[in-house]
Amino acid sequence: MSLLDEIKTKAAALKKTIVLCEGEDKRVVEAAARITKEGIAKIVLIGNKEECARVAPDADLTGIELVDPLTSEKTAHYAEMLFEARKAKGMTREQAEEQAKDRTMFGALMLKAGDVDGYVSGACHSTANTLRPGLQVVKTAPGIKTVSSCFIMIAPEGKNTYNPDGVAVFADCAINIEPTAEQLADIAVTSASTAKQIAGIEPRVAMLSFSTKGSGNDDKFTQSVSRVQQATALAKAAAPELALDGEFQFDAAVAPEVGKLKAPDSKVAGNANVFVFPNINAGNIGYKIAQRFGGYMAIGPVCQGFAKPLNDLSRGCNVEDIVATVAVTALQAE
Questions:
Q1: What Cα–Cα distance (Å) separates residue 63 from each residue in 211, 244, 269?
Q2: pLDDT, tens digit (0-9, with 9 covering 90-100), for 67-118
Q3: How many separate domains does the chain show?
Q4: What's the mean pLDDT in 164-173?
Q5: Do 106 and 247 lie in a common domain?
Q6: What is the pLDDT of residues 191-200, one digit of tens each?
Q7: What's 250's domain CATH number?
Q8: Which pLDDT value is given to residue 318?
Q9: How many beta carbons lie within 10 A of that of residue 85, not counting itself?
Q10: Rounded to whole angstroms, how far apart are CA atoms 92 and 62?
Q11: Same domain, 134 and 165
Q12: Contact 208, 277 (CB under 8 A)
C-alpha cells in the first residue's frame, strides 16, 4: 500500500468532517463526491445545489452537506463570532455581517466554532484569501507564532538511495518568503510534527544552508548563515527531544559519506528526512527539482501552525490533489 493510500485509509477510520469552501469549482465538487463515496471524510461543501449541478452535473452529491452563507441560519452567529474576534482591530458589526457571507471566511468560522474538524480551500482563491481568515479567527497553535507550509515528498519506486524511509518533508516552500531565525525554528518544530503525524516517519531534521557547520562563514554571507545557526539553536531549545541539527548543505544532510566527513559528531548528518530550507526561493526550487528531476510525488502544501487544521490548495490542483489534501487535513484533526 502506498503512503497516500495509507493516509486515506487512516483518514477514513477517523470519520472527520471537513469543509470545502468552493462549491463553485468543478474540481472541488467532483472531489467532494469522490471523498464521500470512498468514505475518506464527511464533507460540508459551501455552495448551493443549483450551482454545483451546473459546474459538475455528473457529480453525485448524496451524503454531502451543502451550506450557503447567504441563506444559512448560522450566518448571524458566525458574524457575531467574527465581530468579537476582530472588533479590537476596528471591525464594525456591519462589516462582520458582510464578511461572514464570504465563503472562505464562513468556512474558517465553521472551523473556529467546532462545527467542522478541518478546512480546505484555494482551488479558485489565492493563498492570501485562503489563509487570511484562518489567521484572523482560527489563529496559531499554543507556543507557535508562525504559520508555515511543507510538502510531503514520496520517493518513486526503487529510487530512494539517500532516502531509506521512502518519504521526506520539505519546508517552507510556499508561505514564508524570508523567514527570521525565530520563524525557521517554528517551521522546524512543526515540520517534525507533520513528519510524524502525517508521513509516519520518525523525524530527523536538517536545517539547510549553503554552509555546513560554519564552512560558509565568509564576511559577505555571515548574516545568511548565522540566521540558520540561530534557528538551529532556538529549535533545539524549544524541542530538545527532537533529532535536529544544522546548519547543513543538502549533501551533508542526506549522504552518509558526506555527513561523516563534514559533521562527524552529528546524529542527523547524512540521515535526515525533514529538510528546513533557509527561504522560500530555496524551498520552492528544491521541492520542484525533486518532483521533476527525481520523480517524487509532492503532497501539499500542507499548512502548519494553525490551532486547527486549515489547508490551502494550489489553483492548478486536480481532483486527486484535493482528495489527498482532505485526507491529510483529517489526520491533522486527530
A1: 53, 44, 49
A2: 999 999 999 999 999 999 999 999 999 999 999 999 999 999 999 999 999 9
A3: 2
A4: 93
A5: no
A6: 999 999 999 9
A7: 3.40.50.10750
A8: 92
A9: 17
A10: 39
A11: no
A12: yes
35-61 confidence digits (pLDDT tens): 999 999 999 999 999 999 999 999 999
User: Which residues, other chains included, contact 300 with Cβ-Cβ below 8 Å and sequence gap of 6+?
Assistant: 149, 150, 151, 152, 173, 174, 325, 328
Same domain, 234 and 311: no
CATH number of the domain that residue 15 is part of = 3.40.50.10950
**Is the domain of 171 the same as that of 221?**
yes
Q: 168 and 276 share a domain? A: yes
Mean pLDDT of all residues in the chain? Answer: 93
Q: Which residues, at least 6 apart from 316, have a Cβ–Cβ distance to it below 8 Å?
A: none
Same structural domain, 113 and 234? no
Its domain, for residue 10, covers: 3-139+307-333
pTM of the model: 0.88
From residue 181, alpha-carbon distances to 184, 193, 217, 225 in Å are: 5, 19, 16, 10
- Identify which of 268, 308, 119 has the alpha carbon closest to the alpha carbon of residue 188: 268
Q: Which residue has the cell 471591525?
A: 91
